[in-house]
Amino acid sequence: MRDDKYNEYKVFGSSAVVTERKIEKRELEKNEKLEKAKKERRLRELTKQRQQKKNIMQIVALVFVFGIIIIGRNATIYSMQKQLVSINSEIKEVKNDNESLKIELLKVSSLENIKNYAEKKLKMVNPDKSTIIRHDISKNNFTEQTEPNINKTLLSKIKDALF
C-alpha cells in the first residue's frame, strides 16, 4: 500500500522549471506548424478553386460549341424547308399549267375547230369529185435507204473518200 501512495507522487522526467526559452521555442514551432498548415490549406483551396474555374470554363466552352452546332444545324434545316416550300409551289404551278394546256389542247383538237382553222386561216376547201386524184399505193414506190455505218473509224472514212 505504501508503494501505491508513493507512486501517486512519482515524477517522471525532470522536475526542473521549464525555461522561457524552451517555452518560446515550443510556441515558435507550434506557430510555424500552424502557419505551414494554413499555407498548405490556402494552397489546396487555391488549387481547388482554380480547378473549379477550369471545369466551369470547359463546361461553358462545350455549351458554346454545342450551341453553335445546333444553330448551324437549325439554319441548314430552315434553308432546306424554304427550298422545299419553293419547290412545292413550283410543282403546283406546273401542275396548273399542265391542266390549262390539257384543256386548251382538248379545245383545239376538236374536229370542228380543225376544220374551221383549215378553211379560214389556210384557205383550204373540201374536195369535189372532179378535183380528186386517185393514186395506187399498193405497190412499193419507195426505195429503201440504208443507214450509213456510224461506227466507221477515221481510217476507213479516209479510205472511202479516196477510193
Q: Could you walk me through the main structural features you see in this protein, from its secondary elements to its overall organization?
A:
It is built from 4 helices and no strands. The protein is mainly α. It has a domain at 18-93. The relative contact order is 0.02. The mean pLDDT is 83. InterPro entries: FtsL/DivIC.
Give the strand tally.
0
Kindly state the percentage of residues in helix.
over 70%
Give, in order, the helices and strands.
Answer: HHHH
Task: Please state the structural category.
Answer: mainly alpha
Mean pLDDT reading = 83
Shape: elongated
What about the largest sheet?
none
Low-pLDDT regions: none
Question: What is the end-to-end distance?
Answer: 154 Å
What is the CA-based Rg, rounded?
A: 57 Å
What percentage of the residues does DSSP assign to strands (E)?
under 5%
Number of helical elements: 4
Q: What's a concise summary of this model?
A:
This protein is an all-alpha fold.
Note the main attributes of this structure:
single chain, mainly alpha
Walk me through the topology.
Elements: H1 2-8, H2 20-108, H3 111-120, H4 154-162
